[in-house]
Amino acid sequence: MSTITTKDGTEIYYKDWGKGPVVTFSHGWPLNSDAWDGQMLFLAHNGFRVVAHDRRGHGRSSQATSGNDMNGYADDLAAVIEALDLRDATLVGHSTGGGRLLAISDGTGRSGWPRLFLSPLFRRSW
Question: CA nearest 14: which of 79, 90, 107?
Fold first, then answer.
């Protein structure tokens, strides 16, 4: 199982498939990285390197008593990006995964990301 350990000792599980330009995926609550398998398989088979992680307290990542907020989740994503030396990545997020992307790109010392894709939430109106 592929994991990194954050500064506070939390184990973060990740998937890393394919070769080529990098696309990262951040899931929403209460999901895990498996939610992105269809998109990841398609992109990996079409020349991309794709990475997704399980947010702390979700899926195969460990439970933590702190860091369970958007800044903590963003720090975990930044730790995965740094540990895997992902450069010039496109970041994709859905729901709270999108909040993670906004937190990681908010200009508070984290690297700026030129390509953020937030999955829209649709509400039907009848």
Answer: 79
Strand, helix or coil at 52? Answer: strand
Tell me if the pTM is above 0.90: no
3-state class of 12 per DSSP? strand
CA separation (Å) from 16 to 80, 93, 102? 10, 16, 22
Tell me the average pLDDT across 95-99. 75
CB-CB contact of 74 with 100 (8 Å) = yes
Examine the pLDDT at 51 and tell me if it is beyond 90: yes
For 1-82, where are the E strands, in sequence order?
A: 3-5, 11-17, 22-26, 49-53
Transcribe 92-121 into DSSP letters: EEETHHHHHHHHHTSSSSSPP-S-EEEEPP
Please tell me the least confidently modeled range out of 14-28, 40-54, 100-114. 100-114
